[in-house]
Design a protein that fits this description.
Layout: E1 5-14, E2 17-27, E3 32-36, H1 43-50, E4 58-63, E5 66-67, H2 72-78, E6 79-82, H3 94-104, H4 109-122, H5 138-149, E7 156-160, H6 168-183, E8 187-191, H7 195-201, E9 204-209, E10 212-217, H8 219-226, E11 229-235, H9 241-251, E12 257-259, E13 264-269, H10 272-285, E14 290-296, H11 300-308
Parallel strand pairs: 3-8, 3-9, 6-7, 7-8
Antiparallel strand pairs: 1-2, 1-4, 4-5, 9-10, 11-13, 11-14, 12-13
Helix pairs in contact: 3-4, 3-5, 8-11, 9-10
Subcellular location: Cell membrane
EC number: 7.6.2.2
GO molecular function, one term: ATP hydrolysis activity
């Protein structure tokens, strides 16, 4: 059975420009998919196709079991969308913004009021509920925007750069709100410029470049794909650093990097935990004492760079 979000051969052309060039996606119900890619890769365009804001040139997609072309109204009723910029009315208070959304979706006044109170509490906005949203900080506006997308309890959420431009404290609060949604069974697709965000929140990641998915898997699987593991250690006695360097040369794929002042060494390896055990055994046998040793896996940043040769997208993602 197709997932809560499913796309096959999704294409979007703008004249001679192909923004999305045959994207395939499948997000099981209750899972979080992180969509990563460099500037102009097609992430935001893909989100707009899946949320019926754009019509695909070709290909098919279903969201919550509804075809995005044949049943766009049903798709819109089933989803929530939080874009790169908070879509709140500055003239209204936070409370009025949320109640208005509920009433636009046909909720009864009492139900809209109750849901508004619940969301204001959930997103820590009670203290500012009756202030105009024009007075809100960037983090508060983003939280209000996400709350507005949840008024009707959607089964599927699309988050396009949800924490773009937020300070670290506001970003952490937003991440916790997203994690709560995922724990409650909401299916989420999020695009993000923060690889730490994808690493923390996503069950699976799809890397998009030039309108196509070029890699997919769990964060752990993508990290393993690069094969760039390294052993890092700190020698207790810097006088033994040459001995330690010679030892690592026997195990590493390249010459170790050495910081003579701190006694820290690092070498790229193949072999994982088994090789680390061998190194520890040899260190003990030769009497080289260490303060710290570990097997370092590549970061998601390094995976991204190796796959795309570029940098993560920023908030100036394609505006098509």
């Amino acid at each position: 059975m197709p997932g809560a979000i499913h796309a096959e051969g999704l294409v979007k052309e703008f004249g001679k420009v192909t923004a999305v060039a045959g994207v395939d996606l499948d997000v099981p119900e209750g899972q979080v998919l992180g969509l990563l890619g460099p500037n102009g890769a097609g992430k935001t365009t893909t989100v707009r196709l899946l949320t019926t804001l754009l019509r695909p040139t070709s290909g098919t997609a279903t969201v919550a079991g509804h075809d995005v072309v044949r049943s766009p109204e049903k798709v819109r009723r089933a989803i929530g969308l939080s874009g790169q910029f908070a879509a709140v009315d500055d003239r209204l208070t936070g409370r009025e913004n949320l109640r208005m959304v509920g009433e636009l979706y046909g909720m009864r006044s009492r139900a809209a009021r109750d849901r508004t109170s619940e969301l204001l509490d959930q997103f820590d906005l009670n203290g500012a509920a009756d202030r105009r949203s024009s007075t809100y900080s960037g983090g508060m506006r983003r939280r209000l925007d996400l709350a507005a997308a949840l008024v009707v309890r959607p089964s599927v959420m699309f988050l396009d750069e949800p924490s773009a431009g937020l300070d670290p404290g506001s970003r952490l609060m937003l991440w916790e709100a997203i994690e709560k949604l995922a724990a409650e069974g909401t299916t989420l697709l999020l695009t993000t410029q923060y690889l730490e965000e994808a690493d923390r929140l996503a069950d699976n990641i799809a890397v998009v470049d030039r309108g196509q998915v070029i890699a997919r898997g769990t964060p752990g699987q993508l990290k393993a794909q690069t094969g760039n593991q390294s052993i890092e250690m700190t020698v207790r006695d810097v006088a033994r650093i040459e001995d330690a360097t010679s030892l690592l040369l026997r195990f590493g794929k390249a010459k170790p990097t050495v910081d003579g002042d701190s006694g820290r060494l690092s070498v790229a390896v193949d072999g994982g935990a088994n090789l680390l055990s061998e190194v520890i055994h040899e260190l003990a046998a030769t009497g080289i004492e260490i303060d710290d040793i570990g097997l370092r896996r590549p970061t998601l940043d390094e995976v991204f760079l190796s796959l795309t040769g570029g940098t993560p997208a920023n908030s100036d993602e394609e505006k098509r």
